[in-house]
Write a structure and sequence with these properties.
heterodimer, A: mainly alpha, MetI-like fold, 2 domains, B: mainly alpha, two-stranded antiparallel ribbon, 13 helices, 2 strands
Chain lengths: ~290, ~300
């Protein structure tokens, strides 16, 4: 027969086990998350310290006192305002055009079962970015539009259109067709059914497509590195050029890096959950 | 015989399908302009001897013949594969572990998951910059952290021996979250019954992972492997910013070599041929992995 003390022993052991498990989980969480936290922390720390503290060894971790001088410096000494403007224009236009052609295309492919274009986009996904750049570069020279933002806007479509189409296909495929069917029976034509019924329902999908396409374009370095002139640089290109000229002023470099990547990180918060489908299927990297 | 109504219906279905195709036309035009035209142009240019500013000349397979004996180009292939293997295997192992962790319940899970996936959405150039400072042999924080646990200073990307693993480290940091997300999605969809009976049978955590979880998530893991392989082969930003292919040519991958040929030497014909070879390598590896995935599915 089980005595009371036995039962108590069992309960204690059970609680101990549970505690050990939680501790192990805590440890695992720390191990998994700390690299991400550390690199972002270090970026922030470098950007908020003065130059003497930045190249101190052993390194100084907490800025004391923190200074915004590095941020002031990059915006005053180089045209970072202009570069930011360029980035917004290039990524904004590329995203907008991608939505204009991509949302209807996603709808058409999902409804018309046009798998061929889907395949084409998959092949586009595996093609190296540089292989688009060589022909487009030659074309832009021929058209003599280098020196404007136009070459970058056009070439970024290589990134944004497949992303938009891909996200929209999966979104429209998952949508229940009853409402549109009802609209069609009531005498709407196909265009009206799309515009008045399907599009409003698909608004969250369009938002995800827009954000993912924008981030892809915003983060892109390669196209700008080849196509941008001094005044048409986007932020990633500008930051890279800062590296080659100011090898040892770490503070401004880190500040610039933070300015470039902050919009992507903020937008990510909105699409955290939807990222996997979009990125898994539609993304293109250099 | 089908009634008239059915025929009319079918006809309407057919014409409706055609009508849907009109929705695709703008996208097709755009895709042909920025994606298909470059493909065709590249194919054509790979058969030409053309450097920008010079006259082009048709040389057939001449560029490919040159490539086949170009030692510098040939050495980029094993180097790219070495980089790719590391940049696929490590994120897959770490990503499965991270997914198992995020599959548990703990406080602040949503926030921490958001932080964890932030690297893959961050701008690669910005990340490479921060790592450039962290890799600094004298003043870098990584060597300081190593010194705390008694490991001697490393040269990281400044030595031919450690440059590829160092670059892989950045790649792993940035792209393990993608693997984690794919596996996390797979774990969420797993059935619970096998685990219940396994617990009854007294199976250990590891046994359950090895014999239940792993086989069930394998098809998803293969998707992660395929995506990771394609992206690792094409990796550019991080390598270019951190090393530009150096020291010497120690980290010159196919993509870096391609960039150099196209936009430093403007040797368009030669570069186009490299693109074709590169594309074939990527496609071949992707198809092999897809085939492996199909086979796995059949075996189950």
């Amino acid at each position: 027969m089980e005595s009371i003390s036995d039962r108590r022993k069992f309960a204690v052991r059970h609680r101990l086990n549970k505690l050990l498990n939680s501790l192990a989980l805590l440890f695992a969480v720390i191990v998994v998350v700390s690299p991400a936290i550390f690199v972002f922390f270090w970026m922030l720390s470098l950007s908020l310290k003065n130059e003497i503290d930045n190249i101190a060894y052993p390194p100084i971790f907490i800025p004391n006192p923190p200074t915004l001088a590095n941020f002031e410096k990059i915006f005053q000494e180089s045209p970072y305002g202009l570069f930011t403007f360029n980035s917004i224009v290039v990524s904004g236009t590329a995203t907008l055009v991608a939505l204009l052609v991509g949302v209807p295309a996603g709808y058409g492919i999902a409804k018309g079962k046009a798998q061929g274009l889907g395949m084409l986009i998959m092949v586009a996904r595996i093609t190296p970015g540089l292989s688009y750049l060589i022909p487009l570069f030659t074309l832009f020279r021929f058209l003599q539009i280098s020196g404007t933002l136009l070459p970058q806007m056009i070439s970024h479509l290589v990134l944004t259109i497949p992303m938009a189409v891909w996200v929209m296909i999966s979104f429209f495929e998952d949508m229940h067709p009853e409402l549109e069917e009802a609209a069609l029976t009531d005498g709407c034509n196909i265009w009206q059914a799309f515009y008045r019924v399907a599009m409003p329902i698909a608004r969250p999908g369009i938002a995800v497509a827009a954000i993912l396409a924008f981030i892809q374009s915003w983060n892109n370095f390669l196209f700008g590195a080849v196509l941008a002139t001094r005044l048409t640089r986007t932020l990633p290109v500008a930051v890279y050029s800062a590296l080659t000229f100011e090898q040892f002023s770490w503070g401004p470099l880190a500040a610039a890096a933070l300015v470039v990547t902050l919009p992507s990180l903020l937008l990510t918060i909105f699409v955290q959950r939807d990222i996997v489908t979009g990125l898994a299927a539609g993304s293109i990297k250099g | 015989m089908p009634s008239r109504a059915v025929v009319a219906d079918r006809k309407r279905g057919y014409s409706r399908r055609q009508a849907y195709l009109w929705f695709i036309v703008p996208a097709i035009v755009a895709i042909f302009a920025v994606i298909v035209f470059p493909w065709i142009f590249t194919l054509w240019m790979s058969l030409q001897d053309w450097t920008i500013g010079m006259k082009s000349e048709f040389i057939g397979s001449g560029n490919f013949a040159t490539l086949a004996t170009n030692v510098r180009f040939l050495s980029t292939i094993p180097r790219t594969l070495y980089f790719t293997v590391l940049a696929v295997i490590l994120p897959v192992i770490l990503g499965v572990f991270a997914a198992e962790v995020f599959h548990q319940n703990f406080p602040l899970r949503g926030l921490l998951r958001g932080i964890y996936i932030a690297p893959m959405m961050a701008t690669p150039v910005a990340i490479a910059l921060v790592f450039a400072m962290m890799f600094h042999p004298q003043l870098g924080v990584l060597n300081y952290l190593l010194s705390l646990v008694g490991i001697p200073k490393q040269l990281w990307v400044y030595s031919a021996d450690t440059v590829i693993p160092s670059l892989v480290l950045v790649e792993v940091w940035q792209w393990t979250p993608l693997v984690m997300l794919i596996v996390l999605g797979a774990l969420a969809a797993l059935p619970t019954d096998p685990y219940e009976s396994a617990v009854m049978d007294g199976a250990s955590q590891w046994q359950m992972f090895r014999h239940i979880t792993f086989p069930l998530i394998l098809p998803f893991l293969m998707i992660a492997v395929i995506l990771r392989t394609i992206d690792a082969l094409k990796s550019f930003d991080i390598i270019y910013v951190l090393t530009q292919g150096g020291p010497g040519t120690a980290s010159e991958t196919i993509n870096l070599y391609l960039y150099l040929q196209a936009f430093s030497f403007f040797n368009i014909g030669h570069a186009s041929a490299v693109v074709i070879v590169f594309f074939v390598i990527i496609l071949a590896l992707a198809l092999i992995l897809l085939y492996a995935r199909e086979k796995l599915r059949w075996n189950q």
